[in-house]
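User: Please run a holo structure prediction.
Assistant: Happy to. Please share the sequence and the ligand.
User: Here you go; the ligand is flavin-adenine dinucleotide.
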Amino acid sequence: MSTTVKIPATHLETGSRQVGRPLERIDAKGKAVGSTRYAGDYVMPDMLHAKVLRSTVASANLRRLDVTKARALPGVVCVLTGADVPKHMVSTDIPGQTGSWGQNTGQPILVHDRVRYFGEPLALIASESRDIAERAMTLIEPEYEPLPGVFDPIEALKPEAPLVQGVGNVVASQMVRKGDVKHGFETADVIVERVYRTQFIEHAFLEPEVGLSWIDENDVINIHVSTQVIEHFRVVADAVGLPYNRVRIRGALVGGGFGGKEDVTVEIYLALLALATRRPVRLEYTREDSFVGHGKRHPFVMTYRTGVKNDGTITALEAKFIADAGAYVFLSPSVMVYAATAAPGPYKIDNLIADAKAVATNNMYTSAFRGFGAAQACVAYEQQMDEVAKAIGMDPVKFRRKNYMRAGDRTATGVVVPSAIWTEQCVDQAWTALGEPVEVSGPIKIGRGVAACLQGYGRLTSLHDTSEGWVGVERDGTVTVRSGVTDIGAGQVSALAQIAAEVLGVTLQDVAVYNSDSAVTPLAGTTTATRALYMTGNAIRQAAEAVRRRLAQRAAKAFNVPPDDIDMAFSKVFVADDPAQSMAFRDLVRICAAEGIHCSELAMFCAPFTEKLNPETGQGQVHPDFSYGAHAIELTVDTETGEITVIKSVGAHDVGRAINPAAVEGQIEGGAVQGQGYALSEEMIYKEGRLMTPSLSEYLIPTAMDVPQVKCIILESGSGLGPFGAKGIGEAALTPVAAAIANAVADAIGVRIAELPITPEKVVNALREKE
Amino acid sequence: MYQTTNTRIIVPEFDVRQPTSLEAVLRELEHNAKGTRLLAGGTDLLVQIKLERTQPARLIDITRVPELMGMAVKDGMLIVGAATSIRTLANGVGVRERYTALAESCDAFSTVPVMIMGTIGGNLCNASPAADTAPALFAFDGAVELASCEGSRRTVPLDEFFVGPGRTVMREDEVMVAVRLPKTAAGTGSAFVKIGRVAADISKVSAAVKLVRKDDRVSECRIAVGAVAATPMRAYTAEQYLAGRRIDAKTLADAARAVEEDVKPITDVRSTKEYRTHVAGVAVKDALGAAWQRARGGERQ
Ligand SMILES: Cc1cc2nc3c(=O)[nH]c(=O)nc-3n(C[C@H](O)[C@H](O)[C@H](O)COP(=O)(O)OP(=O)(O)OC[C@H]3O[C@@H](n4cnc5c(N)ncnc54)[C@H](O)[C@@H]3O)c2cc1C
């Protein structure tokens, strides 16, 4: 579906044999032929089926929850309510392999007395069949005493607003202060101001949440689950009151996550039911359960005010973000950090104020979603860039070029980025790739738009993130990799195999990766935050290199040359300048084994560790590094019906180094499609907290029929902090897409629709108002 | 409520019959029509069962009944068996040439699997205001043939078939046997326009037009719109206005305005009343334009 242009930097190592090639991923065949087992494919003898009963009101006291009829239904084995489960709160922030502590933000496992959002879990049922569990749900009678709720973050900020929880409705905030904004605006020739809005959206991963739990012969709770974070074993242990080493989480290949499986999903329910029944329990969400069962992307209200000189120099920016956090905190604090620090985007803005606030409401809670606050900021800053360019009569690409942050410049938080900043190359490549415009006539208007972005890769440096990985070589010359990493569909596991193959001079087929088991694979941390390749890839590279060093030393002795002269490729070990002097890799491993040379290594990679940002100024390091990229769009708008058709979609990203270009393409294509849905059709609509779009027939993701062929342009600066100079692409691929589409619509119809999604209804209204 | 969901797996606790003749279908109905539903492609019925809008105890699968399948031309009239799939209908011999709007309405079905499974009878009996084939069948002056267990048969013009959302004049003991479409006259042109939210979607608004062009004027014209009222509806005001006129920018705009005045859409999660009203006019205008072009010279038939 995509055409790809690869633009490598000239200085990259050219000698690599495995890395950099579009190899067939090791998970590809199983997925293509349907033989891959996902978490939902595991069953056990004597297994029970679980269901979660959820509230159908958004704000109430739970007066009574009568489960006697449900318990009496034949086939029902267990019904648990808030009264039956420990009063522990489920921690809702900072999962994974981090050194920092959570912030005491929590949600009750099951409602005790107060319901705060529509869909909040009330009771768990385990029964002999799913059908019985469903019938039991209808026999439970919750009695509510309705309480006034608040459903809009701006309303929730007012002093008279009902309190959702805690001491105030502002649950997280982040500010950034740089330079002298007052002076900046005074020296501006033109000031442009606009409010941009984004909506609740849903991850809509293919595979709804699912898991299977059982208690094993060592009294350990095992949970086989679809998750981005196997380190949740700690959260589960805390919730059910067990030591951490008594909960084991096994992942599986994941059918998509996008941040929606970053928080705990079914794990705690499964653990509680397994403990209560001492039988295996399976819990699988339907699509509709999934829609009400996990957090959404934060909707933002973003007020941007930019001062600019007539020559195109930006003199000041003031950005205010108000985000709807929903009823519980979850990852809102980190999302606010991402948003506020990304407020100026990839532009050098010396006078800056950014304020981000997450406000509690009785809507569905919001949490991680690909792009994580920085994606919402991009929707605002890139629309604003177009509007400012228009206000001073400058070409939008030229205006951007004048303001790009370049190597050596300081970011919004005052740090110098350690890698190359190729925003200009990305924008120019994407924009040029649009080529000649298509021809249109009559009511059809054509529009083009571009958006650039920056996106941190790796988690917040204040989290003290680490990743461990193990590499060993076997006596038949094969390589084993062990890493806790979960593969959420992007090829995380295959990339590790490719890295190990590169370092140890074998081929992809020679490498087996064991992953995603919290008890037996080294903990690698979350597959979130565009960190898996950066963190886990580095750990595996380190481990493989340590093994290689020892093997090379032994080979050097055999060939009587210095170790640096030894090369390994295609399962042979040889003297680099004299390949005739060689032996099979397998034979070298056997020699080492016989001599007690250690043929494996456990390595730990640590991201940079910093303090939190200065709370007053927001200055300090936020991310280990940034990816830069751009997306360009050509589309048509039917000015009579308001219908928008995306004609061309081009993503250009500096990924540092494409370990597997085919996998990078997959990310850019997926980002283009998901971003198009964000821009044009997707919206989770809540009315007084109640979900009005409960299934995929109301919530509209684009299908293959709605998207054009995506063009991927992969740039390789080789400057990233990941293995072999890689940066990250997972989130960056999505971030600029919606803004590029919004800009293209504005270009086509001459009015800006500053509220996503840009539906035909809004287009028609905007055109009417313009007349 | 979210617990009754259209993607959950339901336990099949109903009796399923698979008769192989119309007579056998009617006999089944005769014995107990109550609690029994006919099952064609199931693309509407199964969704409704999952959403618990209906809880039939018995299903009669009618897709093995030869009398209900396939197409034939009799006395110039096209007769389509009620259990004919949308895709078979779209590809039927002569359908695209003579009943272009109908073929286009089948093409507009959201996805290929639904086109293969869904049937014309199911589309009409389900009586959704957004049923895509309905406006086209209105435009071609279609009628449906119903059979009941007492052996009676009746033919109901489609104009009179729909009563409200999900409701028709059909009785519980009746089966739709076929859809009948009169022969199209020389100089006929037709078109169907659908406006959805994404490509794979049911209609937000749909429109079908059939007109006969004679001496460069509209000698006859039928216009129908979907998803803008409780049932698919004719746009009579626009039809009357256009009779005897030429199609040009002005008459198109006037016709669109007339349609806007006739329709009575609602605001729901898929669209707004205002948008549907406006776009019904646009859809009719576009369909009229296309039908007028196609009718040029009367070379069809
Ligand atoms: C994903 C999806 C997409 C869809 N997209 C579209 C679309 O784009 N456009 C559109 O118009 N519709 C669409 N539909 C709705 C549906 O597919 C159509 O209405 C289809 O034509 C129904 O036909 P069926 O044979 O599947 O009906 P069934 O579900 O089998 O039956 C529907 C109803 O009609 C009754 N019935 C069926 N045949 C007869 C008969 N011969 N006599 C008496 N009663 C009968 C049944 O008892 C039932 O009440 C979609 C549905 C789904 C699930």
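Chain B touches chain A through 26 residues (CB under 8 Å).
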